[in-house]
Each structure stands twice: as C-alpha cells, then as structure tokens.
C-alpha cells in the first residue's frame, strides 16, 4: 500500500497503547501509519455515570465522524465500547486476538478479609462505573457499597491509592496491556465465568470506510476469525436486548472441546439481582437468539424446585429462584458425622499439597485444628469448597472448575505430580482426583467424615429435582420414584452417573455450585 494511513484514537494511555499496537502490526507488513488523537464525549464529560450519558457510542462517535469525513483512515476501538450497529459507510475490517476478559478487584491491603468471598471486607466501598459489574457483585456480596468511578485506568487506580474507595474493579485486559505494577494492592482475579464480562471485552476493533477495499484486504493479516465468531454471538445478544454500555448485561462466548459455550448475566438495573444462563451448542448459528429467548418476558419458569441441601437465607440459589416466585423445597437427605477427633500431626510434616473435593472435607478437616510445620498449597474442587476454605482463612492455589473430575485431575496433576498430597475426605472416597496423579506422587488419604443416609425419605412433587451428591440420590430413590413431569438436575458427573445407571435423563450444570445450579434451572 503506497499511501500513508492515519489512525484516529482517543488520548488515554490505554487507547494510545491500542492504537500503537495496530500501528506496529501494520508496520510489520510495511504499511506506514501516523496517529491522530481525538476527544470523545466520554472523555469530556467526567462528572456523570455512564447511564446518565445520552445515547450510545460516547467513546466512539467522534472517531467515526472523522472516519466518515475522511480525515482519518482507521479508527481503533475497544470493541466493547462500540454500538452494535456501524454507521452507514463504516465496517469493522478486523478484530484483534482477545486478551484475557477476566476482571480484577484491586483492594487496599488494610481492607482485605480473606474470610469473605472476593477477599474484600464486609461493607466495603467498591468503585465501578459499570451497572453490569454492580449487579453481579451485589448478587454475591449484597453488603458492599457500590459507588461510581470514572476516569482512565491510571486515574482510577490513583483514586484507590488516595483511599476514596476500599476497592475498585477493572478489566484485566487494560491492566495487562499497560503493564501496571499493582503490588501495593491485594489483587483478586475473577474469571469470566464467575463474573461475566461485557460483550467483546478484551478485543480491539479496527474500523474503516466500507468502500476502502484495498485497506480492508491489507487488514486481513491482523484479523482473527475465531475471535470474531465468538464476539458475534456476544454482540448479537447485546443487539437483541437493545442495550449499550449502561445495560447490566454480561455475555461471554468461548469454544471448548468443539462446543461454543455462552455465559450470560442480565438485570434491568444495577441494583437488581441478575438472571444467569449457560448454553452450549456445536455451532454459533442461532445461538444468540436462543440465549435471548431464555430471558424473554413472560417465559414460564418451573413453579417449584426441590434441592437436596438446606439453603441459607442469603443463598445465591435461593435468591435467584425467589426473584421469579419459584417455591423452594430444601432438605438434605443425608447426614455427615466426623470419623476422627484427632490425628497424628506427623502426617503433616512433609505435605506439599492439601486437596479438598467438598465443603464437608474442608469443614471436618479444620475442626481437627491442623498445624502445618511448613507452607502448603491448597487445591479444591469447585467454588463452594474454595469459599469454605476462605472462611477458614486460607487461599486456594488451584480451583478445579466444571463437573468433569477426570479433567480436573489432569489439570491438578500438572501442579502436584511428584509431590506429597493429602486428601482429607469421606470415609469411602471415590478417589477421582487421586487416580489422575502419577506413580511418583505420594498420596495420603485421610478420612475425616462419613455420610449417613436418612431413612423413610418423603417424596417431593416439585417440578425440578436438584440432587447435590450421589448419596442424596441413593437416599431419595430408596423409597421413591420420579413422576413423569419432573426434570432432574445433577451436580457433578458422579451424581449424574447414578442417574445414568437408572436410565434417567438429567441436566448437568457447567459449574458444581449454586450459580451453576441457577443457570441449569433457568436453562431447562
């Protein structure tokens, strides 16, 4: 390409990083570029929260106007800032590789409480300008005070440093790109499955004039087709909901094991408890439409749900169901009791890892008041066990996600093979994780509790039956059968295996926790 191109960009450090990234990428294919800094409405108006700004595209409109006028040739945007419709005459010619779309919670070190979920103290003031983040944060931590936070990334961090907030939330992608040192804060990384990001978060959009065919062809060297396919699902969901940056909507699409997985969180207001959904499909065709249909107003939900676990008043699952008037029948069909009251502390002398497969394992192990003579690492299966471990004052070094214990065992083995690993657990454990470790790994099984099945379990007439363990399945079906209209949700593959043996169809949540259960119920 003979002509020299002009890239239009906002003037923030992050926007300039993004523009220079594209500039350097073009230079690598012998295309010369210069930058032009353009101020947008979002840059000029800093005293209002996003939901008070008029219209959409308040970080992109001025760049697009200059692109249409021909004063620039390329506009580089953070893809999540773009409206879902391009102005007439403009197209997205390329999208970048996607940076990790996780969120970071930056916490002042004297405001850390590891016993709390997300590690921020009770009643903390958290800064974020996003209704999406606000709704999801409050769903997990209703005690938090969420206050508006504006400015570029360094400005926001400066406000935290000045103690105007106890913690703030930022996209990991921006922090990574700027290479910022966050060592003065406690940093809690929240995966895009735990707190669902904005549609297209972490990707760059390269926008040009539709009739600039030569430039379009040149930019295909920078285009990531696989990323574009996933982002198209997220942005179509956003478009179908008619939303902009102020809508409390999170949508994240990824391809795993040949299937497209879509995680969605939606509320109407930032202080409303959000609905969550998980869907997967072999192709993206019609996938966004299926997601939106599940959120349709007036969609019929089950009238009642049984769960084989007692739920607290602040239970995420309880609040998710009660929001829609769904009656909940929560009762455990088993009891757990300790099998030891003390153990020889010599067992802990050379331990490298302690792995917990359940909340019960954490609870009963720490009732024994273990004293570790050296620093050990902790692994857990699922976020429920992670949360229980937090309450005991410990962080996890590995969290197994999903319901496939074989996959978790494979991942954990990469960290623990050749080490000494203690497995506190049930008296007759399934040993799914242990079986995935190498022969040179020393495995110590420590039974700390046993499971006792309740007798004469009363049948439930609920529309949806949620079973939280194989033992609960055994206890219920010792005396009862399913009615033809009842649907079943099973936590984990070991629980599902019981239904496989019975020939019963069931739904397996993506994650074996209360969020995953809520997603599964609303996906039926």
TrEMBL record:
Cofactor binding note from Swiss-Prot or TrEMBL: Binds 1 dipyrromethane group covalently.
Task: Please give the catalytic activity noted in the UniProt record.
Answer: 4 porphobilinogen + H2O = hydroxymethylbilane + 4 NH4(+)
Instruction: Name the Gene Ontology molecular function terms of this record.
Output: hydroxymethylbilane synthase activity; uroporphyrinogen-III synthase activity
- Cofactor dependency: dipyrromethane
What sequence ranges are listed for the domain Tetrapyrrole biosynthesis uroporphyrinogen III synthase?
Answer: 317-513
Query: Which key words are in the record?
Result: Porphyrin biosynthesis, Transferase
Q: Could you tell me which residue ranges the Porphobilinogen deaminase N-terminal domain spans?
A: 5-215
Against Pfam families, the record matches this protein to:
HEM4, Porphobil_deam
The protein's assembly and partners: Monomer.
Family indicated by similarity: Belongs to the HMBS family.
| Alphabetized PANTHER family for the sequence | PORPHOBILINOGEN DEAMINASE (PTHR11557:SF0)
What function does the entry list? Tetrapolymerization of the monopyrrole PBG into the hydroxymethylbilane pre-uroporphyrinogen in several discrete steps.
Can you name this protein?
Answer: Porphobilinogen deaminase
Q: Which organism is it from?
A: Mucilaginibacter rubeus
């Amino acid at each position: 390409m003979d002509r020299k191109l002009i890239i239009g960009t906002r003037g923030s450090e992050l926007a300039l990083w993004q523009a220079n990234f594209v500039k350097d990428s073009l230079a690598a294919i012998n295309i010369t570029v210069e930058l032009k800094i353009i101020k947008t409405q979002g840059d000029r108006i800093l005293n209002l929260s996003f939901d008070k700004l008029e219209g959409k595209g308040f970080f992109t409109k001025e760049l697009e106007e200059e692109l249409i006028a021909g004063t620039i040739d390329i506009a580089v945007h953070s893809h999540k800032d773009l409206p879902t419709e391009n102005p007439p005459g403009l197209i997205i010619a390329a999208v970048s590789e996607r940076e990790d779309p996780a969120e970071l919670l930056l916490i002042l070190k004297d405001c850390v409480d590891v016993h709390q979920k997300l590690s921020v103290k009770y009643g903390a003031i958290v800064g974020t300008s996003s209704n999406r983040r606000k709704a999801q944060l409050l769903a997990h931590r209703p005690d938090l005070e969420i206050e508006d936070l504006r400015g570029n990334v360094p400005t926001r961090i400066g406000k935290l440093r000045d103690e105007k907030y106890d913690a703030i939330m930022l996209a990991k992608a921006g922090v990574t790109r700027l290479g910022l040192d966050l060592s003065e804060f406690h940093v809690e990384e929240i995966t895009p499955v735990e707190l669902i990001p904005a549609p297209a978060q972490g990707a760059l959009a390269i926008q040009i004039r539709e009739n600039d065919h030569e430039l379009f062809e040149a930019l295909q060297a920078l285009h990531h087709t696989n990323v574009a396919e996933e982002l198209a699902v997220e942005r179509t969901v956003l478009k179908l909901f008619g939303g902009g940056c102020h809508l409390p909507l999170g949508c994240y699409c990824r391809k795993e094991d040949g299937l497209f997985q879509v995680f969605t969180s939606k509320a109407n207001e930032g202080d409303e408890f959000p609905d969550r959904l998980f869907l997967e499909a072999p192709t993206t065709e019609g996938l966004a439409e299926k997601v939106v249909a599940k959120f349709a107003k007036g969609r019929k939900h089950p009238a009642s749900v049984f769960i084989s676990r007692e739920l607290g008043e602040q239970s995420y699952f309880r609040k998710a169901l009660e929001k829609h008037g769904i009656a909940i029948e929560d009762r455990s069909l088993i009891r757990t009791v300790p099998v030891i009251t003390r153990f020889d502390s010599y067992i802990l002398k050379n331990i490298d890892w302690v792995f917990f497969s359940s909340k019960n394992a954490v609870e009963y192990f720490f009732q024994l008041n273990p004293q570790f003579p050296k620093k050990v690492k902790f692994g857990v299966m699922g976020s429920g066990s992670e949360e229980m471990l937090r309450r005991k004052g410990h962080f996890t070094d590995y969290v197994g996600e999903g319901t496939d214990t074989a996959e978790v065992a494979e991942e954990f083995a990469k960290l623990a093979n050749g080490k000494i690993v203690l497995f506190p657990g049930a008296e007759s454990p399934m040993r799914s994780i242990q079986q995935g470790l190498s022969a040179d790994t020393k495995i110590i099984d420590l039974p700390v509790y046993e499971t006792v099945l309740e007798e004469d379990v009363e049948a439930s007439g609920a529309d949806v039956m949620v079973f939280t363990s194989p033992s609960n399945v055994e206890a219920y079906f010792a005396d009862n059968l399913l009615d033809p209209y009842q649907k079943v949700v099973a936590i984990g593959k070991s629980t599902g295996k019981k239904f496989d043996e019975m020939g019963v169809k069931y739904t397996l949540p993506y994650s074996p926790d209360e969020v995953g259960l809520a997603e599964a119920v609303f996906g039926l």
